[in-house]
Amino acid sequence: MSRLPPDSYTSRRLEHATPEHIHLTTRRAFIGPIPEGWLNSHRKQWYRYYVQQGGKRAPTFTAAQSVAADDDTTQEADRPLAEQVPRPSSQSAETQQTQQTQTGTGMATTSTTSLLRSQRNSAISAVSDRAVYSPTEQNGSATEGHATIDSVQQDGGMQQRPSDLLNPTRVASNMKLQAPKVRFSEATKLQFRSRAQRIAAMGNFKMSKIKPGELMKMDKMLVRIDITQQTIREDYDERVSRGVETKSLDKWREFMVVCRKHEQGAVLQLYQTRVIAAMADKTKKKPKAEIILSQHKAKVNMFSSLDKTLCIWTQEKNRTYIYYLRPQSGAASVEWYTFLRTVLGLARSTTLQVNVPDLSVSLRLDDPFRALESSEALRDAAAGDEEAIAKAVSDEQGAAGAIVARCLDMLKQSPQWGDVVKGWAKNDRIGLAWKRYDRLEWVHGAVEQKMYGTIAMQRTHDLELRPKDHYPSQAKSKKGNIVEEPAPVEGFLVRLTTQKGHSKRMGKMLFKRLYFTSQNQYLVFLRPARAKPPPPPKMKVKKDGDAPSKQQLIDETPIYYDVDPFPLDNDGQVAWLDTEGVKSTSELAAYDREASIEAARNTDMLMVCDGFIDMGDIARVRKFHKGANPLDDNLDSGSDVDFEEATSNNNRNDGNTNQLDESRTLELLLNNGLVIRLQAYNQQSRTVWISRLRQLVKYWHHRAKEDMDLIKSVREQNLHALQIDERAEAQVGSFAYKWEVSQSYASPLMYNLCGISYCRPIHMSGLLFRKPRRHTTFTRCHVILSAGHLLIFQDTLRKRGSGQKLVHIHHERIGSVDLTGCYLYSGLLTENDLLYQNQTFDSNAPGHHALPRIYLEDGWTSTDEDAMTTFVLWHAKSKSWFRSSHFVDDVKSRERSKSIGADGEVDSGTRAKTKTKLTRVSQLGVTGRSVVFKARSRAERDRWVLGIQVEIERLAAQAQREEGEEVRLDE
């Protein structure tokens, strides 16, 4: 049976989304042709990137289908795009007809059975009959039975992820394919062993005590130290801190935070080095600070429930020292919180409550981690066995899946909900999410893999079982009609307008060749030299490996074609997946690799874009209207702007002309009265561009309105449920206790899975106010969050001297923030970064400094304080060199193997000569640089913080896999 491995791109996409959703969010349309000048400069690179990486395979990109014509477009749009004659000078009608035939047969699939469809019925039966999938089975069959939850956990159910129970793709892959071998560094193995000992001690095993001075846990964190003369309560957090007057003793700095066993319990040490001794008596460098962790000397709490910043405070004489600890990952932060509470002797709750909001049911799970704590592998891991450590890590990664399985089993036992569970198994992916007031934090990635450590979030959050919702792909018009999201469009165009809307300078019309691609509601443009057009539907692979000639590529490439990495069959499943073993593993891998390359292509172009046109600002897409510009009377008919000509890689205009070809020019009329003129390859291309852009503009107008209406309705619903006003909501959203907001509503559409599962290149976007440095003022900007970067675009164009606001046609890119190595914190901890806060006085609300605000572009209102709308990105500004832990461990392993003689004894005279690998890392113990952002309200701030945190965690996990940990254990 052919199928993809669980860690493949397609499998990871299907884990959270349906095939239909993946198809809708990855399809695109290319409107060409590709200019000959561009092929002259980029032909070889373009060919090798797509063809040689994909190898010989059937194409997944098809010739474009027919495009519906609008009222003022020509009848040419009524014909299928593949039938329109491209480039008469380069391709005959006979060649074009042959090409159509090849394209049409290229999509024919030899399988009629989808990977998901064939196992749908078995998945439903598995849920209803309490089937248990054992990872040791090799025949692909399921063991059916009414086993208890204990047997499920012990027989392999603990290795299921939350979606495995309802996603047959993941189940089938995990049954047959073995999981990749986990690789640990020496420091990681020591931490896992110590952690296994702590978990085992909570179960039935009696482990040997950890020796004093032995390393228990360590991580890289951002640390800030405050001091106060007031006595702090045991529940000190962001809410309580408003009544505590503190003084900053040390600014935010990055340290290696190490916890060791101590005579009085444990000790927390802050190091300015990445080389950490396994035992305290072998330490070469003393820590900068030490915190004795004992019940009488230290207290710990989660300071912020949003960004998961921790706080530890100790009292010495009349002073209290407060240490704020901020790991990069939110999952690591909560895991540290659980660990520190355990060290201080605070017992973990033995019950877990899971709410099911769609059914208005609450489920109570007694001792949800009993199987993990009593696992034989955990006992061996605590003793130091490497294979057992890997097994224990794998068991914990399945803890979230086991919780989902137990909840579904309890619901299945009730006749009232049995049919609902079957419906979920058939149509939805089910997952866990932590809820607090109006926000949802999905259990995924690192949080899912460390569910045992992150369970302490139940002190501030409610755990819920929910279907995994995604960003909608349809909207309603004013008349109530459903508008489906059209496919994005891209291609080469010539812009005949400057940013200020000017079309002429010195009596001549300016022009600039650009590549346009639509991403969500943005029509993004970039220089052609940075563009990556999609590969054609069918391109022959030359045996010698050389790129075809320019003319060959022109002949083999249609002018119009659709891009569809995940085409659907008649049953709504991915057409190229099958369970009958018809397609070989290599063929499936080629399709999967092709889809991954297509996703990377869209992201890469977004990363290097020069600006965008917001389709929400477009009032109408039309043909050329003479007289739209007062200088049109001076233009001559025709055009000397060569579409095929190559262009330089700069932001300057390509030239000027006094001719205009009306037949291939389209116009975008903006709401501010300005007109953007774009020139296509020919009249047919212009017709398609007009039709496609009209559909996109219409849809995103409705979609943007629905998004704003959703945000407003969620707030109104919570105001009514909690009987509060908007001013009180600003405080409740940040500081309320869990029980105070238990009746609140959180929308899964606002906190959807698209950003987490990377369905679209854009994770988030919107308006923010940015302050690049502490001692500057805030400026309003458009921000796009994508692929671990914050792309910043100009919002308002102003005159240099007077600062007068100017109308403009597009938003230029002015900066980018790489989130690699960044830390994020928010709320009251940002007051020192704000410096100049709003100090207005509201006589109707004494003590409240923020006046009510309204944003005219969408009618959104806010009365939140400045600190409640602010978040800060901290990144190091000093670098140093460091030897990677994985590389050093490999060197030690090779040296030991080479120094062992035939008799098994170590040869002291043998030494392996190897080169050390240095990596660039941040320098510890020094201050960094902060970039301060303010959102329009607390609700928007929460969405930005959670979205950015997802990207930071993704980057941190990727860096650890590729480069290893930025810490080395010194034995």
What are the low-pLDDT stretches, counting only 5+ consecutive residues below 50? 54-61, 63-86, 88-183, 900-906, 908-914
Total of DSSP H or I helical runs spanning 4+ residues: 24
- CATH class annotation of the domain at 728-876 and 927-963: Mainly Beta
Largest sheet: 19 strands, mixed
CATH topology of the domain at 728-876 and 927-963: PH-domain like
Shape: globular
CATH architecture of the domain at 728-876 and 927-963: Roll
- Give the name of the CATH superfamily of the domain at 728-876 and 927-963: Pleckstrin-homology domain (PH domain)/Phosphotyrosine-binding domain (PTB)
Radius of gyration: 30 Å
Kindly name the structural category. alpha+beta
- The N- to C-terminal Cα distance equals 48 Å
Mean pLDDT rating: 77
Task: Report the strand count.
Answer: 43
Helix content: 25-40%
Strand content is: 15-25%
Pfam families: PH_4 (PF15404), PH_SPO71 (PF23207), Spo7_2_N (PF15407)
Biased composition (Acidic residues): 633-645
Domain Sporulation-specific protein 71 N-terminal: 3-64
Biased composition (Low complexity): 89-116, 649-658
